[in-house]
Write a structure and sequence with these properties.
The chain is of the alpha+beta class. Helices cover 39% and strands 23% of the residues. The chain has an eight-stranded mixed β-sheet, with helices on both faces. α3 packs antiparallel against α4 (100-107) and α6 (189-195) crosses α15 (525-535). It is flat and about 95 Å long. The two termini are 41 Å apart. 35% of the residues are buried. The structure holds one RNA strand of 75 nucleotides.
RNA sequence: GCCAGCGUAGCACAGAGGUAGUGCAAUCGAUUCGUAAUCGAUAGGUCACGGGUUCGAAUCCCGUCGCUGGCUCCA
């Protein structure tokens, strides 16, 4: 535990002490330090609200001022259990009620582990420590919010009240922290998205379904352009698939019923014609089954079928046709099955591999309402998806190429703070959580690890987190307000192609099942753009900026306006997103507005510029950078856009 | 989905039982200006929605929807 964590952990004890002074009946569960502070979970009939904070903080101040020593006491398990039963853990003094959660926690401490208590003043808690020496060491603290949390994080357990707070060595550090939080809030993509008119939500459309305004659509189109160029150069082929598919496909893929809850409920269609067909098929099925029974019992052949397998095949075919009747269509929650179908649409040869099918696919996932979060967690998303079908021999190289593509993108966007999380299988759970292909697991994981090590990327390996069909790499980033998100993913799949019966004809004329790499380096437009808004604080580089150039005149003399219009037309002819501000505001007002709207480049044109055939250049956030000949300025802008520079 | 808080004009906010207010943005007019706000006028609201209490509800109560902070979840 770091020094600051220790301090915050101690503050959690002080919080518990204060709460007990006000509500002696409070029952405490766990109170650890967390990333920017600490919390304590408690059960209390009174619902604590932010209005109570002042009162609680008042009591906490008294504890800090009293400067009690944190005293460490080692006890045996029996002693700890006894104290919990007597209600003396996470408590001020003896009380009738046992310390319920502490009792449970004590009983779950593994044998042989040292059990310690910590005392500050008349408060005693079960705690492994460490703590600061005295409560007075807590220089500054503040309760921040109250939330609820399931005991031990398990949905089946009761919900407790969780009080969050933060603490620092001194007030200066705490003030700096809250200032930083304010700064982060200014970057919040939800706020900037509204202010910059990038996207919006509408109650009639539905929660988690973002609508992209023209300026946001620009970001989407630019990212797609980048992806298409990059993927074209890397040998990908673009495909397009529908947004819906029949239930049968998701049964085959294995996504149903496991993921049905995360999918929008199906659309059910059963038209007259289909009803008739259902009756016909049902009759036929009965007939074939009867014939099969007769065949089994007597060996007599009543139809064209004359082998048991033929009967079974026929029955299976009818059942399948029936299953597709009265069609249930699902909105796709992932693109892979559709792409698998495209792989399967043509006979494939080893000569075609690796086959890389790419699409910005629209997916729909019915995320829990409480999970929705701006653009970062939505219900409709446009995914930078592609599936690479390859042989085992090709896998290492393909996976590495994908990885390099990630790094290329990160470089373009200047993304430095990220973490690659390599999720692997758990040998204990083969055949249950993970497909039972031990050799392939070990082999592909070794290949992935090798790629990661060779590229020198910082990564952590997380066992037991892989997809059921193979190991994966998730790229984690953090939003302005500190939430962690997977921004991109790269997964190996050696199971689903088999379920789809995907095969290619190999050199030796045998049919083989390809490996599949699922990859989405730019994740979804929604999350990626949400992240970029915060990453750039809305100040997009020129090539991405929704409004790249704004031309504004000083005054509205006819010759000036003509000149400005010519510059404007020239830029637009080169597909530069340039706008013209011919309003009657003073130049200061025009600049103010353009700065607030985060227009990347401002071309100020006054009489001096007109006479010199120049334009005065101003860059958002950087101020006036001086005049330049008009041709030079235009050429610079075009070059910067082409090279995707700032 | 669960717990809690919040929904007032496009945006940021005020009003806390007696019939709706400010700033910015918008619209119209005047202003002609060299790098972050020229002046004036006008318009804009079923106070999220539905029900209840009351002589009277934006305000109090209940329900629904949405948002926010957490928890759970995240192929």
């Amino acid at each position: 535990m770091t020094e600051i964590e220790t301090l915050r952990h101690s503050c959690a004890h002080v919080l518990a002490t204060a709460i007990l002074r006000i509500w002696p009946e409070a029952q405490f569960a766990a109170g650890p330090p967390v990333e920017n502070g600490f919390y304590y979970d408690l059960d209390l009939p009174h619902r604590i609200t932010p209005e109570d904070f002042a009162r609680i903080e008042e009591e906490m101040k008294k504890e800090v001022k009293a400067n009690h020593r944190f005293e460490r006491v080692e006890v045996s398990r029996e002693q700890a259990v006894e104290l919990a039963r007597k209600g003396q853990l996470a408590a001020l003094s003896e009380r009738a009620e046992p310390s319920r959660f502490k009792l449970d926690i004590v009983q779950n401490i593994p044998d042989g582990e040292l059990i310690t208590l910590y005392r500050n003043g008349d408060f005693t808690d079960l705690c492994a420590g460490p703590h600061v020496s005295h409560t007075g060491r807590i220089g500054a603290f503040k309760l921040t919010h109250v939330a609820s949390a399931y005991y031990k994080g398990d949905e089946r357990n009761p919900q407790l009240q969780r009080i969050y707070g933060t603490a620092f060595k001194n007030k200066t550090e705490m003030d700096a922290y809250f200032k930083m939080l304010e700064e982060a809030k200014r970057r919040d993509h939800r706020k900037l998205g509204r202010e910059m008119e990038l996207f919006c939500f509408d109650d009639d459309v539905g929660p988690g379904l973002p609508l992209w305004l023209p300026k946001g659509a620009v970001l989407i189109e630019e990212l797609e352009k980048l992806a298409k160029e990059t993927e074209f150069a890397a040998g990908y082929q673009r495909v397009r698939t529908p947004h819906i598919a029949r239930k049968s496909m998701y049964e085959r893929s294995g996504h149903l019923p496991y993921y049905a809850e995360s999918m929008f409920p199906p659309m059910e269609l059963l038209e007259e014609e289909e009803k008739e067909r259902r009756n016909k098929l049902t009759l036929e099925l009965q007939q074939v089954k009867e014939e099969k029974r007769t065949f089994e019992l007597t060996g007599k052949v009543l139809s064209s079928l004359d082998r048991l397998e033929d009967f079974n095949d026929r029955i299976h075919a009818i059942e399948q046709a029936l299953g597709n009747l009265g069609s249930r269509y699902y909105l796709k929650a992932m693109n892979c099955p559709h792409h698998h179908k495209l792989f399967d649409a043509l006979p494939r040869s080893y000569r075609e591999l690796p086959l890389r099918l790419a699409e910005y696919g629209n997916c729909y996932r019915y995320e829990q309402s409480g999970e929705l979060f701006g653009l970062m967690r939505v219900r409709s998303m446009q995914m930078n998806d592609a599936h690479i079908y390859c042989t085992e021999e090709q896998f290492g190289q393909e996976f590495n190429a994908v990885n390099e593509m990630y790094l290329k993108y990160f470089q373009i966007f200047g993304i430095e703070k990220y973490l690659m999380r390599f999720s692997t299988h758990d040998p204990e759970q083969l055949g249950q959580k993970f497909v039972g292909e031990e050799e392939l697991w070990i082999k592909t994981e070794a290949m992935v690890r090798d790629v990661l090590n060779k590229s020198g990327i910082n990564y952590v390996e997380v066992p037991n987190e892989a997809a059921f069909y193979g190991p994966k790499i998730d790229v984690q980033v953090w939003s302005a307000i500190g939430r962690e998100f997977t921004i991109a993913t790269n997964q190996v799949d050696f199971a689903v192609p088999k379920r789809f019966g995907l095969v290619y004809k190999d050199r030796d004329n045998t049919e083989k099942t390809p490996l599949c790499i699922h990859r989405a380096p730019l994740g979804t437009h929604e999350r990626f753009i949400g992240f970029l808004i915060e990453h750039y604080a809305g100040n997009f580089p020129l090539w991405l900026a929704p409004e790249q150039v704004r031309i504004m005149t000083i005054g509205d003399e006819e010759a000036l306006v003509e000149y400005a219009k010519r510059v404007h037309a020239e830029l637009r002819a080169h597909e530069v997103r340039a706008e013209l501000d011919l309003s009657t505001d003073k130049i200061n007002g025009k600049i103010q507005r353009a700065e607030q709207q985060k227009v990347h480049t401002m071309l100020v044109i006054g009489k001096r510029d007109l006479d010199a055939g120049a334009v005065s250049l101003r860059l958002h956030g950087k101020g006036n950078v001086g005049a330049k000949p008009r041709d030079e300025a235009v050429a610079d802008i075009l070059a910067s856009i082409k090279e995707r520079r700032g």
